[in-house]
Amino acid sequence: MILATLVAAASVPTHAQDTVKIGAPLELSGRFVAYGAQGKRGIEMALAAHGDMAAGKKIEVLYRDVQSNNQVALTAFTDLVQQEKVNFVVGPIASGIVAASVPAWREGKPLWLVPGSSSTQLEDAMKGETLFFHTYPWAYNYHENAAAAIAQAAGTGKKVVIVYSDGGYGREQLPWAKEFYTKAGFNVVATELVREGAADLNPVLQRLRQLRPDVLVGIVQTTDGIQLAKQIQVAGLKVPYLVGTAYPQLKEWADAVGPEAADKWIGITTYLPGMTRPADPNLPKLFPAMSDWETAFRARYHREPEFLDVTSYTTAMLLLVAIDQAGTTDKNAVARKLASLDIMTMLGSSKFHPTAGGAVHQAFSKMIVFQRQGDKFVTVYPNDVANGKLMPRQ
Fold it and tell me: How far apart are CA 281 and CA 278, in angstroms?
């Protein structure tokens, strides 16, 4: 009886001990599916390049579709933490969805890597948390860089109107946009609220007609960014500089709005196709030169990579390398190893650093400003990576 009990007890943890469980709660359906699809591709590609073993154990990625819904995200994260008892989580990506996951994360505090969410509310909520790693720029990085780029190209003193959504994304970024455009020498003449998911933006368009801004800054999520760009084009508004956040880079956004409406939109990102980055000298197969990685991505997915493909690949691969180098699945040991890594990735150095807002582990906060010019992405800022000049919209 004692022997049978010991055998049964020993058999229960064997699979757990031989498996590295990584939770991947992602927006695989719903309005943020463009983000979640890129997140999943990045993780898949990292696993394919790395292999399915880490620290001598089989890697098991537990994908959960959070359906771009806060409550579903909370439920999925709770399942991963309390039922699956994962030590590692990568995702979700959209700001509101990540924020909704925080209470569930606190229940078990796995090592959590977030390859998205620019929300400084998240930065504040995770202040001092050593098991939280953020691999995407914060909201203020967008506006700081975009304002500097336009000031350099067009001069200061221009009129700026900020259009922002009524959700957490727009409301939270609005103060940062006002601060950095004002600091750069612009005159913010109005801030216009739009409802998330609104089909008719005519009231805002009428205000823009009256104000005649030189710069319009659209702080909205991708689906609302589609409506904004299409309706500006249909209305024939003559705004010289149209500034988005991440969405002007997305293929889904460009396909939806069409080439004429997408032309001359300005975006801020961490990656553009065709950028030059060298391979890491010590781990060239896991962190190859950008051109080699892009070739492998196209061969696998038959499409061009997007910025969250790169960010999610880099984030997942850093976790896998940290587990390997730590030689254990203990989350605290892996966190210490992850914090110490200094690898040349496709997003630059992986070295994590604290932020002024109190986050302990932040990487990849440097951004580039680009403009869609015809069928090309043209990098316009900063000067050391620029391959063209910012042009006003006719």
Answer: 8
In eight-state DSSP terms, residue 342 is -
CATH class of 140-269+368-381: alpha beta
* Average confidence score pLDDT of the chain: 92
pLDDT at residue 343 greater than cutoff 60: yes
For 57-95, give the DSSP string. EEEEEEEEE-TT-HHHHHHHHHIIIIIS--SEEE---SH
- For 372, half-sphere exposure in the C-beta direction (CA atoms, 13 angstrom radius) is 26
Half-sphere exposure in the Cβ direction for 351 (13 Å, CA): 4
Q: How far apart are CA 17 and CA 330, in angstroms?
A: 11
What's the whole-model pTM score?
0.78
For CA atoms 217, 221, 222, 228, the dihedral sign is negative
Which two three-digit tokens encode residue 158? Answer: 């221009």
pLDDT of residue 386: 85
Residue 60 to residues 134, 135, 160, 324, Cα–Cα distance (Å): 22, 22, 49, 15
pLDDT tens readout for residues 190-210: 999 999 999 999 999 999 999
> What φ, ψ does residue 389 adopt, rounded to 5°?
-120, 150
What residues does each domain of the chain span? 2-137+275-362, 140-269+368-381
Residues 6+ apart with CB under 8 A from 287: 279, 280, 314, 317, 343, 344, 345, 346
Rounded distance, CA 342 to CA 325, Å? 13
Q: How confident is the model at residue 17 (pLDDT cuts 50, 70, 90)?
A: low
- Strands (DSSP E) along the chain, which ranges? 19-26, 53-54, 57-65, 88-90, 111-114, 132-134, 159-165, 187-194, 215-219, 241-243, 265-269, 344-345, 348-349, 361-362, 368-373, 376-381
User: What's the CATH superfamily of 2-137+275-362?
Assistant: Response regulator (3.40.50.2300)
Q: pLDDT value at position 251?
A: 86
* Contact by Cβ (8 Å): 177, 120: no
Its sign, for the CA torsion 291, 293, 299, 303, is negative
Terminal-residue alpha carbon distance, the chain: 84
